[in-house]
């Protein structure tokens, strides 16, 4: 490599290798085997392959769902969104939005949302488990950091789980109304299909509502009869504590 490069050569090199700038052979001296453009092309290709492998690990469910088309779709996303982050953990940011822009089938978009929720949960900090007894004082609650809430119209979460466990894959179903919770427990990400009223309470907490406000919203929507509310709430929060879905807000 030439020794008289400008002070910002590292930034320019990174931009070229990541695809943010066109290749410039002035930054390479060449050699007996490779031209300057070939030299930097090697670096760029290795970088691209590393990005592809990282992305494929982030979207395991979508990769299975796409089958033979997975490479084409993943490469298309990387071409449109070259990484500009210092960490590979951000490689799949924007994938869901990009699929929607491409008018991808709903099952692909929903699978990408499940994949993203799982990866986000893996990376989240450890929350503080709460006991059913602690709920008696109606503290202000929030979702545990690893928890994600999704509403799905397909059963892609079941397909993803079966694929990763190498079990029999269920047929794809559309037109469903799945209220899904993704959460981490015992160092594993799990999913749980929750009944709609309980899911709406969690949604309210995720939006910053007080506990009673979140519960009242369920009643106002006619999702639970007032005379059955006390019994329902007791069951919900027993489950929330058991699955470590909520914590006391600081």
Please, could you describe this protein's structure?
The strands form 2 sheets. This protein has a 3-stranded antiparallel sheet, sandwiched between helices. It has a two-stranded antiparallel ribbon with strand order 1-5. Residues 1-7 have low confidence and may be disordered. It contains 10 helices and 5 strands, in the order ααααααββαββαααβ. Helix content is 48%, strand content 10%. The longest helix is centred in the first third of the chain and has 23 residues, at 36-58. The chain is mainly alpha-helical and 250 residues long. Helix 3 (60-66) crosses helix 4 and helix 8 crosses helix 9 (211-220).
Features:
250 residues; three-stranded antiparallel sheet; two-stranded antiparallel ribbon; 5 strands; 48% helix; disordered N terminus
Count of individual beta strands: 5
Question: What's the overall average pLDDT, rounded?
Answer: 85
Estimate percent helicity.
Answer: 40-55%
Indicate the proportion of strand residues: 5-15%
First-last Cα distance: 54 Å
By oligomeric state, this entry counts as single chain
Largest sheet: 3 strands, antiparallel
Morphology call? elongated
* SSE run: HHHHHHEEHEEHHHE
pLDDT < 50 runs, ≥5 residues: 1-7
**Tally of alpha and pi helices:** 10
Structural class: mainly alpha
> Main sheet: which strands, in order across?
2-3-4
Rg from C-alpha positions?
24 Å
């Amino acid at each position: 490599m030439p020794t008289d490069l400008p002070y910002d050569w590292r930034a320019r090199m990174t931009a070229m290798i990541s695809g943010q700038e066109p290749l410039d052979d002035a930054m390479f001296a060449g050699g007996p085997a490779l031209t300057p453009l070939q030299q930097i092309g090697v670096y760029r290709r290795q970088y691209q392959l590393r990005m592809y492998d990282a992305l494929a690990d982030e979207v395991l469910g979508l990769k299975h769902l796409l089958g033979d088309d997975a490479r084409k779709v993943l490469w298309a996303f990387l071409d449109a969104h070259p990484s500009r982050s210092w960490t590979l953990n951000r490689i799949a940011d924007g994938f869901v939005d990009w699929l929607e822009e491409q008018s991808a089938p709903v099952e692909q978009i929903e699978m990408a949302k499940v994949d993203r929720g799982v990866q986000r949960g893996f990376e989240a900090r450890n929350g503080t488990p709460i006991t059913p007894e602690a709920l008696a004082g109606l503290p202000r609650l929030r979702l545990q950091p690893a928890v994600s809430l999704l509403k799905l119209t397909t059963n892609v979460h079941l397909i993803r789980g079966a694929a990763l466990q190498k079990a029999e894959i269920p047929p794809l179903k559309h037109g469903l109304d799945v209220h899904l919770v993704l959460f981490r427990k015992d160092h594993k990400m799990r999913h749980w299909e929750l009944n709609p009223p309980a899911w709406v309470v969690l949604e309210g907490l995720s939006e910053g509502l007080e506990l009673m406000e979140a519960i009242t919203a369920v009643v106002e929507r006619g999702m639970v009869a007032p005379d059955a509310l006390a019994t329902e709430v007791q069951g919900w929060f027993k489950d929330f504590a058991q699955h470590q879905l909520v914590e006391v807000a600081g």
